[in-house]
């Protein structure tokens, strides 16, 4: 086990010592994968070795937007992004301590507690896996499934999707994410009154939500470029307000950046034959 994980609590290190790893083949594995996911991950050529997690309890500051202006709240955006990054990096540290090649089924959760109205706990959790020798030395597969920065790969794909991705000739690199906390401008009383009983678009609100989602998506794509990925799969966008004012909302985009197993890999195009009776 690595001795460089100084950021991990002592009880986490003790738990990791009891898990199955390269230095402890007699340990037990733990996993939050379902039975089907576990079996498919193994069929894909990977062995689950242990659940890993990272946590960060973060104080989220206050930033007020202008009443009648659409605008990003940069301080809140930075807080939400940094807190998730801390949780992710600590989860990766635990995987590194086990000698894992990657982490599958990653979940990012946010919890709030009564003892801190401005505090939130950011949690990253997944199952660390190692590639079996036949994957790392044959069939044109890479010698290591870790990232080019020599970190374990991370993926929020299900076990089924992970298996399908590898069978198609691609592998996960990293979970990539982008966030934007945005203040949606209020609408004046007279304008609201003039629209009573009418069906019509609200351009101010439309533009605000559109812009915020675009910023989150753009930042997620920028992370994929930094990881040297070919694309991002399994993208989803979550929305939340986390106790902020009614006109403040966060858009969070996340997905798994992927790359081909071989530089010359292409996915065959199936021959589609359409019947006149279809």
TrEMBL record:
SUPFAM superfamilies membership: YbjQ-like (SSF117782)
InterPro entries referenced in this protein's UniProt entry, alphabetically: UPF0145_dom_sf, UPF0145_YbjQ-like
Domain of life: Bacteria
Recorded family membership: Belongs to the UPF0145 family.
Protein's UniProt name: Heavy metal-binding domain-containing protein
Species of provenance: Alicyclobacillus ferrooxydans
